[in-house]
Amino acid sequence: MEKSIAVLGLGKFGKSLARNLYELGADVLVADGDDAVVSEFTACSTAAICANLTKEEEVLALKLDQVDIAVVTMGSNLAASILCVSVAKEKGVPLVIAKSESNRMTSILKKVGADRVINPEEEGGARSANILVSNYFHDCFKLDDNLMMLEMSPKEEWIGKSLDELNLRKTMNINVIALKENDKLWNFVDPTTVLDENCLLLIAAEAATLKYIRGN
User: What percent of the chain has pLDDT over 90?
Assistant: First the structure.
């Protein structure tokens, strides 16, 4: 089942994020106050809505209680960001993410309920999209147009099995480079180690392979 994600604000970062999420198969709701910008996204989103995100009644009308993730991308508008984060949390959105342009703004957004704050200088839209559409990905680094490095939790079907048993290089065309257990330091992989839900894997994979390892 695809994740339902609301992208609130269609600046440079919001546009990149929304497009990449939609291309990755997510159910994407976009909202912005500029009707012309919203019109651009009628063909690359599930729903595109023109709304004044500084007005509570218009944010409430977006029905954010129906999405899995809300991403507030208006880093230059603190008031709108605070309002959207607050409404999303009040409506029970499981994961609320906000864009920030300063340490002070980051602190404020966390205080009003943002579960995670994104710094656009560190995290591009494509990278964020890959993280958001997967229950397993924690971080994603694009090495070039083909090769990706991923930090991820083991998929459910991998837990309780060793890398020898899984043979991921043959079955899924991915290479496990390192493993971290229970927040310890990264270590090279012992192929006999049995994976559990508390470990993290560092893997290398081709871009075309991501859809097979992303999961829901």
Answer: 48
* Span 49-73, pLDDT tens digits: 999 999 999 999 999 999 999 999 9
3-state secondary structure the chain: CCCEEEEECCCHHHHHHHHHHHHCCCEEEEEECCHHHHHHCCCCCCEEEECCCCCHHHHHCCCHHHCCEEEECCCCCHHHHHHHHHHHHHCCCCEEEEECCCHHHHHHHHHCCCCEEECCCCCCHHHHHHHHCCCCEEEEEECCCCEEEEEECCCHHHCCCEHHHHCHHHHCCEEEEEEEECCCCCEECCCCCECCCCEEEEEEEEHHHHHHHCCC
For the record, the structure tokens of 58 come out as 């218009």
- What is the pTM for the complete model shown? 0.64
Token couple for 57? 């009644």
The amino acid occupying position 111 is K
* 166, 158 Cβ separation under 8 angstroms: yes
- Radius of gyration from C-alpha coordinates of the chain: 19
